[in-house]
Amino acid sequence: CSVFITQEVADASQPVIFNPDFFVERLKHEHPQVLTDLVLSNITRLVDLPGEEFSQFTGDSDPKIPTAGGFLRSFNFLKRKEKGVVFGAPLTEEGIARIYQLIEYLRKHLHVEGLFRVPGHSLRQAALREMLNAGAELDLEAGDFHPNDAATVLKAYLGELPEPLLTHRHYHVHLKIGELTLFDENGDKTSILDKDRQIEAFQLLFMLLPAANRSLLKLLLDLLHHTARNQHLNKMSAINLATMFAPHIIWPKNVTASDLQGNIEKLNKGVAFLIRHSQQLFKAPAYIKEYTRLYFAGSKSLQSKDDLTLCSGTTSGAMSAAAPASPSPSQQKLKGGVSLDYTESALRELYQQVNNMPASAKKKKLIRQFEKQPLHVASADSRTPFSRKHWRSRSLGGIIKRKVLGGQVQAEKENNGQSPSNRSCDGRD
Q: Which ranges are annotated Polar residues under compositional bias (predicted)?
């Protein structure tokens, strides 16, 4: 991870300022599963993924895409691996380096009317493909190719990837994020999209992309963002560009427009959102940055997103207070390695989700089930940004049926004899 120095005047005493995502990148490198669990927990806080969709998202089961005739499965074993071939080959950093020549060239020609819509010349496209496959260094400014040739070849490259750039596993999550809307004062959904929650969800989702996918996606969205900003010249708005690129970067492979039925408009709008807000989507949310900083600062207590937000307004040293030398009863372990801190946090998060439901008989029933439990979760109003691998997003009824509110609480009573205490952000009871 890179660092940079703020320097108004060349002075060796100037402080070193870390990359804002330094600790996020460090955690990804040193403890990837911890970061994955942290991100998954927060995605499922924002997006409701039923059990089967969650299993597909985490890779526990093969992705299944609904089509007009049933479901389409992803056949990963059909991926071709041809050495030295760019088109049709799995995504690699080497392939991205070659394709970047097209992106760099197109950035200089954003004024071309109909860019990405008007096709290039077929013979020039074939020659360009052959040169890219051979690894030849291109001189696109020599005048042998037109920007429309490069634009068409770039779309073809994305369309011929064995898997969509945004991956099959993330397909359902993209659809769900597109449905995130604001709530009214009664807790009912409105038809107004919740832009802030959508941006947060995409920031988290993109942290889970394979490194090569994330790199190319960032380059592509940046190009399309600046293309849309020049729409007064090229006549290509964000939704125009999304219509061109959605089939190449998010549509599942081997499906037709009729297979996707009513999802095409939703997918196009989703890609248009990515184009418009691309400059914000590749940053970690503030609470993720703060959590990872605390992880390496030596704090042992797991704090909620709301705790981190509250503490961020205090003095800089307040959040780095060390944990007690001896573990508190709430930090002891249950069978299977689940901490009591974690158990209570998970229950608080579940209660919060129930409490946010619109008034209904089902909500009242679930609240009554919570009130029967010895843990005082009803008074908690915080949600943990941390998760364990075996804590999974399920429907609320499914979670309760799995007796989350039974087995773990009973084990906690046997170990503690009382509910664990909550700690404030400065480490005091």
A: 416-429
